[in-house]
């Protein structure tokens, strides 16, 4: 992973074998990022993607291995219990353009390169588990 800060945005290049979530974790720790918006494109050789079932309140994850293009990677960084929390969604397509998969990105291993833009936002947003929803939802923090 290499990155440069341009204003309030980090431009991040990931290389073959870099893992997206682990790389973002390192970036947030190194640069003390608590709140940001993420977008990205690139190519993956492996992705673990989950879809949340609102009825059972459980994630169902699948792992996809092969040649995949990232059609869209979007999400945000906040914190939960004082550590970075990533809420990332991804859409990937296969080499034959016949299948696309989309959902919550749990893991993404880069197959060629990935280009991420991490736009830092001034402020702090925390997360807390909502038993009603079954997810870690945004909790607004009074900064005073």
UniProtKB/TrEMBL annotation:
Entry keyword DNA-binding: yes
CDD domains in the cross-refs: DUF296
Segment forming the signal sequence: none
PROSITE patterns found in the cross-reference section: PPC
Domain PPC: 4-141
GO molecular function terms attached to this record: DNA binding
Protein's name in the database: DNA-binding protein
UniProt entry keywords in alphabetical sequence: DNA-binding
InterPro entries xrefs: DNA_bp_PD1, PPC_dom
């Amino acid at each position: 992973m290499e990155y440069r800060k341009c204003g309030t945005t980090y431009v991040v290049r990931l290389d073959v074998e870099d893992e997206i979530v682990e790389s973002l974790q390192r970036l947030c720790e190194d640069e003390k990022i608590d709140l940001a918006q993420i977008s990205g494109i690139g190519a993956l050789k492996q992705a673990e993607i989950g879809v949340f079932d609102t009825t059972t309140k459980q994630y169902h994850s699948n792992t996809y291995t092969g040649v995949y293009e990232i059609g869209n990677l979007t999400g945000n960084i906040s914190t939960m219990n004082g550590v970075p929390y990533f809420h990332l969604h991804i859409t990937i397509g296969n080499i034959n353009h016949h299948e696309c998969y989309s959902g919550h990105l749990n893991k993404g291993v880069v197959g060629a390169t990935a280009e991420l833009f991490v736009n830092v936002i001034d402020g702090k947003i925390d997360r807390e588990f909502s038993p009603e929803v079954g997810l870690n939802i945004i909790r607004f923090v009074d900064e005073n």
